[in-house]
Amino acid sequence: MAKAHIVNIVVLDNPSAFFNPFQFEITFECIEDLKEDLEWKIIYVGSAESEEHDQTLDTVFVGPVPEGRHMFVFQADPPDPAKIPVADAVGVTVVLLTCSYRGKEFIRVGYYVNNEYSDPELKENPPTAPLFDKLQRNVLATSPRVTRFKIDWGDNPCDNSEPIEANSEPMVTETNGSHNTSGNAVNSDSSQHVSEDSAGPLKPVLCHDSNHSQSMEVA
């Protein structure tokens, strides 16, 4: 049984300019104390054709984590345009939020992302070379793809090579936005927190960035 569960994710500052940071307000719950850190990553898929264009935008370690419910805001810089193929700069792609324990990924949440020009003229006649400073990013947050993996939490070893579940779940939500099954994006309005369970206050945990030695307290 998984010892940590994502309760809710809210995509902040969405829609936003391409060069603005990604921001996710993450609420998660632990059913018992975790002695080691949870490793969170934000990964931007630069091209559907090859994983070599994937960019890990940031990694943060949270822990040790006591039993209970916790919340923090995970912010990451936008992707490097130089690493995105020209043909994939405008249109629909994916951003992934992953969490691992002891180096093993146990949950992955994927969102469609639509990059398009806000200027009607550029939208009608897009330039050959993408103008990233003119692009607007819209994370389609109403239907995330949630995949769970079996891992060893320190009790019994298990094989995490296959996902045990892959579906869209209402527990990870944002209102006022949608996308259709063809993959064509539609606009999203303001972010709004939605949670199925409002039990209890959030407890503080320690969060430290993988690139910095200092720790910061989040609640």
TrEMBL record:
Entry's Gene Ontology molecular function annotations: histone binding
Polar residues bias spans: 173-193
Gene Ontology cellular-component terms listed: chromatin; nucleus
Keyword annotations from UniProtKB, A to Z: Chaperone, Nucleus, Transcription, Transcription regulation
Compartments in which it is found: Nucleus
Family: Belongs to the ASF1 family.
Protein name (Swiss-Prot/TrEMBL): Histone chaperone asf1
Organism in which the protein naturally occurs: Medioppia subpectinata
